[in-house]
TrEMBL record, chain A:
Subcellular location: Endoplasmic reticulum membrane
InterPro entries: ER_ret_rcpt
Protein name in the entry: ER lumen protein-retaining receptor
Keyword vocabulary terms for this entry: Endoplasmic reticulum, ER-Golgi transport, Membrane, Protein transport, Receptor, Signal, Transmembrane, Transmembrane helix, Transport
The species this protein was found in: Dendrobium catenatum
Pfam families listed in its UniProt record: ER_lumen_recept
One Gene Ontology molecular-function label: ER retention sequence binding
This protein's GO CC annotations: endoplasmic reticulum membrane
Statement: the UniProt record of this protein carries the keyword Protein transport: yes
Gene Ontology biological-process annotations: protein retention in ER lumen; protein transport; vesicle-mediated transport
Signal peptide: 1-25
Amino acid sequence: MNAFRLAGDMTHLLSIILLLLKIRATKSCAGISLKTQELYVIVFMSRYLDLFRTYYSLYNSLMKIIFLGTSMCIVWYMRSHKVVRQTYNNDEDTFRHFFLVLPCFVLALLVHRNFTFIEILWTFSLYLESVAILPQLVLLQKSSNIDNLTGTYVFLLGAYRGLYLFNWVYRFFTENHRVRWIPWLSGLIQTAIYTDFFYYYIRSWKNREKLKLPA
Amino acid sequence: NVEPELHDEL
């Protein structure tokens, strides 16, 4: 495993730890989109189906279990925890999952590498992950008060796939990898969606101002 | 020749 890949995974892991920390320490999920979190549960469940079929490494299996467990844990907190769920921005988190899940699934049925159950779901998970942040970004645009933990959470979550892009370039040249359009393009689109957010996040950090996204 | 493709990634 190369440094970009490891940095990407650690950034992803850190973003989740930060979100759980915010929820547990402040007993609040204000500013967090339940829609996005539920989409991540779908993403991980469809991508990590091979957990029980193919063994890659202890690291790989452990991380998959962590991502599955934490994503479900976050959704549980937001839906069922008696204190946390009352802080959820129900009225502002209006994005419909359906409009993301269905097109991604249809696209996976049309554009994939092999027509097998695992491969279709894997492809679907890549397409869905690339757009899963949209409800969260829409919610942030509507929020007048974005706390630091939420801002940094979204920043790390965006940075993770960007680091994977470097990982793919590195693997392409060092491991005789062929061109992999499906993950590469999905990852590129996923990172591009964050561009605006990155700009405002870094600017607010440099100017020591509170993060605010233009509506 | 079944390659693991990029399935070894997360």
